[in-house]
Amino acid sequence: MRSDQKQILLAIAVLLLGFAAVFGLSSFLERNRITLPPSYSDSDLDLQGKKLKGFALGAEGLISDWYWMRSLQYLGGKFVDSGEASIDLGDLRPLNPRLLYPLLDIATELDPKSMAPFSFGATILPAIDPQQAIALVEKGIEKNPDEWRLYQHLGYIYWRQREYEKAASVYERGGQIPGAPPFFKLMAAKMRGDGGSRDAARAIYTQMLNEAPDRQTQTSAQLRLHQLDAFDEMDVVNPVLSAFRERSGRCISNWPEILPSLQVAADRTEHDLRVDAKRNLVDPSGVPYRINSQKCEVEIDWPTSKIPIN
To answer: Structural domains in the chain?
Structure first.
């Protein structure tokens, strides 16, 4: 056999052995792969953006906007990756959005006059880490002492934590700022009276909806108001269901059975109840309420409804 043929055969043998070694090594690594916590799926490569402050040649505002938009995309990606049909907006810890606060912190450090990141963080962070939410808004107050909306956000966070005295104190401080609406004095009194009431919640979310500087905060406030409306409606419907069971000895099997009685109850309590084309009673998001036949009570269809769970 000529020497050139031997070299070709030797090269082929080396290639085959190389492929076999690579395949074996890949199989070994696949079998012995280390399972990392979900938090390692997040990248921290560019979370030191605040160091650019003073060195961005006047582009801090633009870089801040980038981090602000990235925070929205980041949280949205967490919602999508969760694969859940219904997410509890009152507790987002299962999503493990550990980078949301750093992203918002950088955005507000680069441009502390931009209110949208503060507003969004005050609305979302209490469901992740209330202390981070407080730290973010207190930073905003330090940088913008005359911005009464930040006091509104801080009062909201304390209210979410059921620290009504602290919430009342914050609303009182905010009410002293020139231009602050009468809402602050009203909420300071309400926090000390019935801070945990549904009326207090409605007043807070209505003000938040009217004053929100960004669409995300508006959407969150609107969903919370839908939730409160649903709770009010269920208070109207449940006595009608109970009365029907007492008369007939059974719970209803469909909504048309009691629609006339529901209309009477709605008129008496001045609540608007909605019915879809199939004559189903629907919640504020347009999804039919569910009938719990065992308890004979109305329930929100959480997996389908857009209304927050908590």
So the answer is: 49-222 (1.25.40.10), 223-299 (no CATH)
